[in-house]
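input
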Amino acid sequence: MSDSPQSLDHHTRWDPWYHFFLVPVALITFFWAGYNAYELRTAWAHWEIIGAIALIVAVAKIRLYPLKAQDRVIRLEERLRLSSLVTPEFRPRINELTERQLVALRFASDAELPALAKRALEEKLEPKQIKAAIKSWRADDFRV
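output
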């Protein structure tokens, strides 16, 4: 993980143990098991493929479950932040923002958040479009 400031071009976080060790080992194991099943044609070799698939599913879930929990927290945080920054007329519309829009809006500074949230709703902006529209980037250093 880099210590350089986050921006649109540099906000993806990499966990070296996960991305560069665990994922490649799971994929190599799967291909190795497939090769063995092709070469050996035994029941055990075919069972190794099932085990390798289970390993890939476990590796994916290890990543997806905490990200989903983080998204829920981000959604709550951003709704609270928006409710304190937007006009009373806009407050009821906060719940119209999608989870993906809220997750992207977390990078917007307090000054630009209300206008960008309104624009995201009116123009149905995708997360990449929201991030590209941010002028004053607010780093999220806790997400991996």
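quick obs: The helical segments are 16-40, 43-85, 99-105, 113-123, 127-133.
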